[in-house]
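Field reference: sequence -> structure
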Amino acid sequence: MFKNVTIYRIAPGWTATLESMEAALDAARFVPCGATQDKAVGWVEPRGEAHGPLAESVAGQRILKLMIETKAVPGSVVREKADEEAEHIEAATGRKPGKKQMKELREDALLSLLPQAFPRRMAVWVWIDLANGLLVTDASSQGKLDELVTALVNVFNDLSLTLLQTAITPQTAMTSWLSAPVSDEDEGGAPGGFSVERECELKSGDEEKSVVKFTRHNLATDEVRKHITEGKLPTRLAMSWEGRIGFVLTESMQLKKLAFLEGVFDDRASDGESGFDTDVALSTGELNKLIPELIEALGGEIVPGMAMPDAPTAAPAKPKQEAVTAVGEDDDPPF
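Structure field:
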């Protein structure tokens, strides 16, 4: 169910009932793209059962599912069709279409081609933990996160979300864990039940923006520490927790490549019935233990409204070509 994790803090005071959530979601139920529509966003049944509930409650946890459907036409095809129409206009009138008319021709070409485009659907899972005031999603890109937050705010007018922030940034913590001496088992290294695994990405902050990637590689080496002392900082680091969950922590505090390790789902029911409830209960139960420990490992949560110790750096106006060095192979998960 969850392959990625992004965590939001729900502002205090939001206590929607299951019934009120169902009514709000039903007003924004997913409807596929029309013939000339390039995007459709709406809520679908988490269990996949037609006409079923849009808001599920399993072991006290709320589960929602957003569907995003898009249809795309290659820009080259749109331009080709618009240029053909422009040639016809020039032949008939003796003049070339101006910029405004060419824009209209491209828009008309897109509308005429959209009915032939194949739709692509992407589902986004949402887990709402009202007891702890958290909202967790498996959206993997910023675009999907933006679509999700917009869809949630549109259906729940009184819902306010902020990305969960910690006192120590993930990048600072990852730098410390990778820089810890190999022989020092009591200080440094990943704290508590966390372990550093065999994948990381280091990126320099200078104009070169050079990147070094280690995959299926021992990270407790002088080679890794040398890159860090030279100014390259970790942007991704593979970790595991209590031997039960593997993931890649990013500098923006997303958990990528989430994997429940051997033994976690051994108690899953195999009686032929749908395993939806079991999957939800087990996955949210494990993540409900991991998330507080991760927050603690990162120095605790910053209360919304407090200033972050490290403000995010704006992206450069003209990014330069990155120099990349890869060590190891990227075929298998790093756990």
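Note: The first helix runs from residue 18 to 26.
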